[in-house]
Write a structure and sequence with these properties.
mainly beta, about 140 residues, Immunoglobulin-like, MPZL1 protein, immunoglobulin domain, signal, Ig-like_dom, disulfide bond, six-stranded mixed beta sheet
Length: about 140
């Protein structure tokens, strides 16, 4: 009689949950803090990273414009955000927020915050729809 032995290896996988507001209104010419927080059951390690990308209103592609890794911010050097991005988060407090100075109408669109904290996996990045409005006309 031939018997078979099957070994099943189960791996516990937990997820990083990223939280952002759905929509923000920002006055033209002002600075905006884009809030992004996350939850993770893992200790925040030196391998944790944050990336931000931008999808302009009406565009099909995303522009990656900011990366944070190993305690250091790496703002993109490309237009439209050159010299306008500041790290405003603290990974130890599970905050991956950034600030953008001098918001303009061309900054309308969706901002995507993606947090990685290995071995946790990311289910879904946070997305914020930003609408830049005339000063004094905030809804």
């Amino acid at each position: 009689l031939l018997s078979s032995l099957y070994l099943f290896h189960t791996v516990e996988v937990s997820a990083v949950e990223v939280n952002t507001p759905e929509e923000m209104f920002v006055e033209n010419g002002t600075d905006a803090k884009l809030p992004c927080t996350f939850t993770s059951v893992e200790v925040i390690s030196s391998a944790a990273s944050v990336s931000w990308s931008f999808q302009p209103e009406g565009a099909a592609t995303r522009i990656s414009f900011f990366y944070y890794f190993n305690g250091r911010p790496y703002p993109g050097k490309d237009i439209p955000f050159k010299d306008r991005i500041t790290w405003a988060g603290d990974l130890n407090k599970k905050d991956a927020s950034i600030s953008i100075s001098n918001m303009q109408f061309r900054d309308n669109g969706t901002y995507i915050c993606d947090v990685k904290n290995p071995p946790d996996i990311v289910v879904k990045p946070g997305e914020i729809r930003v609408r830049v409005v005339e000063k004094g006309i905030r809804p």
